[in-house]
Specification:
This protein is α/β, with parallel strands linked by helices and about 550 residues long. Helix content is about 55%, strand content about 20%. It contains 20 helices and 15 strands. It has helices at about 35-45, 75-80, 115-125, 130-135, 140-150, 155-180, 180-200, 205-220, 220-235, 240-255, 260-290, 295-315, 320-335, 340-385, 425, 430-445, 465-480, 490-495, 520-530, 535-550; strands at about 1-10, 15-20, 25-30, 60-70, 90-100, 105, 110, 125-130, 390-400, 405-415, 420-425, 450-455, 480-485, 500-505, 510-515. Strands 2-1-4-5-6-7 form a 6-stranded antiparallel sheet, with helices on one face. The longest helix has about 45 residues, at about 340-385. It is elongated. The two termini are about 25 Å apart.
Length: about 550
């Protein structure tokens, strides 16, 4: 239930504080006084879209707070707990809009997204606007109203999910089926190419090792000849490096006085001699083990030729063949097995069955609720001076199922006895359409789980005795919860539990909208004004009689 509404710097409002209670409250005032401004501000606090034009001229930002009692609203408290927000007895929704159009939203002081604000707001208040009768001409509205009346919102959402899952899978099936021949050809090619690479069986680093071995085998003669020459140079007899080092060591040793520098030279020469001896030994072992192997050379060159040939065939470098093999393997896995199409078809059939089962359950709920809703609306129409009108909710099976189910929902009406029921827009006049809209809103509001109902001039086009009936209906709704109504009918205002007056003032430079609750005589005067404009003794007496009767 809405407890408090604070509006600051919003359009024509400078500062406004309103306290609300249970029952039916009406907002009245002269035409153009700004009665709907309060509801517009409330809508922003609930997540409606806004812009900088809504900020009062000269102000930096508009600020709106709405405080609700949620002590008896388990769904709202559960949602707040899921969002890790404070879920006490009260919740405060806040919305600010800067003059530059920037908007911020808060729940209990915690910044939230506009979607979060709207989600919670929809659980707290249900707003019926004066223009809702226009949406009543749309079949989507008819289906929504019926699903809400049947409390089938969860089943409707389940049907949409099943339908989307089924259609997404079906689109994949059609795409695969349409390209089945092309896909099979690609699969065959990939399998052939992969088999070719698997037969090649190129090992990691094998190419580098083969190329090194090939160079060595191809130059075996030159390598062996050079090795012999190097061996002779190192330790091959008279004049070789080993002999030269030996003579150098003898010269150093024969000097009569050994300086530190000569001692260091002798040490280095001795070390060089040892290294030369080891180099000669290693070279001798290399020569002894070195083999000329033409057959191995042929094998290596044949292997390299096969690798180079396949690389040229697929226009890649030889060392890129393993990577290419991996790419082809991944593509083949993505294409799937040859029986993937059959499996996908079976999956589509299963998903369609799931959808039709869920849609069938929804159809049963709609069918049962359609009769009850039609009967309840017809009973209200009789009270609204349309005793001969007959509303029907037609459920027509669709040729192709949709995300909304297996049938189309349409509200039909016959305004006179003996006439067949036809579409609302083809039969109902503007005034009749307004009364049908009001009847539907009143009926659906009676089954609504939303604690606060707001009616914004839904009684437009209605007057006289019918207006008194509307007032009774709204008061009855207020007995079960909280109703806030903007009205221009004295009959409706008189039936309310409390009444607020909206007034527009001007100081010559700017206009201001003010709102206050009326007490006793003030309320009689306002109802008298609504009856005939000027408050006369006769109109005041009539107003007091209406208030007493209410």
């Amino acid at each position: 239930m809405l407890l408090h509404l604070s509006i600051s710097q919003f359009t024509l409002v400078d500062q406004l504080e309103l306290e609300f209670g249970p029952g039916t409250s009406t907002l009245t005032g002269e035409t153009g006084a700004g009665k709907s401004i309060t509801l517009d501000a409330l809508g922003l606090a609930l997540g409606d879209r806004g812009n900088g034009d809504l900020v009062r001229a000269g102000a930096k930002r508009a600020d709106i707070h709405a405080t609700f009692d949620i002590s008896a609203h388990q769904d709202a408290r559960a949602w707040l707990e899921e969002q890790e927000m404070d879920a006490g007895r009260e919740v405060i929704l806040r919305r600010t809009i800067s003059a530059d159009g920037r908007s911020r939203a808060y729940i209990n002081g915690q910044p939230v997204t506009l979607m979060q604000l709207r989600t919670l707001g929809e659980q707290l208040i249900d707003i019926h606007s004066q223009h809702e009768h226009q949406s009543l001409l749309k079949k989507d509205t008819h289906r929504r109203l019926l699903d809400e009346y049947a409390h089938a919102e969860a089943q409707s959402a389940e049907v949409r999910i099943h339908y989307k899952t089924w259609q997404d899978q079906y689109r994949r099936y059609r795409k695969l089926a349409d390209s089945a021949e092309e896909t099979q050809a690609r699969r065959d090619l990939l399998e052939y190419q992969l088999q070719e690479l698997e037969q090649l069986d190129l090992k990691p680093s094998e190419l580098e090792e083969l190329e090194s071995e090939q160079r060595q085998l191809a130059n075996a003669g030159d390598i062996l000849n050079g090795s012999y020459q190097l061996a002779a140079l190192l330790n091959g007899g008279e004049g070789d490096i080993a002999e030269q080092l030996h003579r150098a060591l003898q010269l150093v040793s024969a000097m009569p006085e050994q300086s530190p520098a000569l001692a260091e030279v002798a040490q280095m020469l001795d070390s060089a001699r040892i290294q030369i001896d080891e180099a000669g030994s290693t070279l001798s072992r290399h020569i002894d083990r070195f083999e000329m192997d033409p057959e191995r050379l042929a094998e290596v060159e044949e292997r390299l030729s096969a690798i180079y040939s396949i690389a040229r065939k697929h226009r890649v470098q030889p060392d890129q063949l393993p990577e290419l093999q991996q790419q082809w393997q991944q593509e083949l896995e993505e294409i799937g097995a040859p029986d993937a199409l059959d499996k996908l078809a079976s999956e589509c059939e299963r998903l369609e069955q799931d959808f039709r089962k869920a849609a069938g359950n929804l159809s049963k709920l709609r069918s049962a609720a359609a009769r009850k809703l039609a009967d309840a609306v017809n009973a209200q129409l009789a009270d609204l001076a349309m005793p001969h009108a007959r509303v029907e909710l037609a459920l027509t099976a669709l040729e192709k199922p949709t995300a909304t189910g297996l049938e189309e929902v349409e509200i039909l009406i016959a305004t006179n006895p003996g006439q067949p029921a036809r579409a609302l827009g083809k039969i109902a006049s503007g005034g009749e359409l307004s009364r049908v809209s009001l009847a539907i809103q009143v009926v659906t509001a009676q089954t609504s789980r939303t604690p606060t109902l707001v009616f914004d001039e839904v009684d437009v086009g209605i007057g006289g005795a019918t207006g008194d009936v509307v007032g009774k209906l709204l008061r009855q709704l207020g007995e079960r919860g909280q109703v806030i109504c903007v009205t221009h009918l004295a009959q409706v205002a008189a039936r309310a539990h409390r009444q607020y007056l909206v007034e527009k003032h001007s100081d010559g430079e700017a206009a201001f909208v003010a709102l206050r609750e009326l007490k006793d005589g003030e309320r009689s005067a306002e109802v008298a004004r609504m009856l005939g404009g000027a408050a006369t003794a006769q109109s005041l007496a009539h107003a007091e009689e209406m208030l007493a009767r209410a």
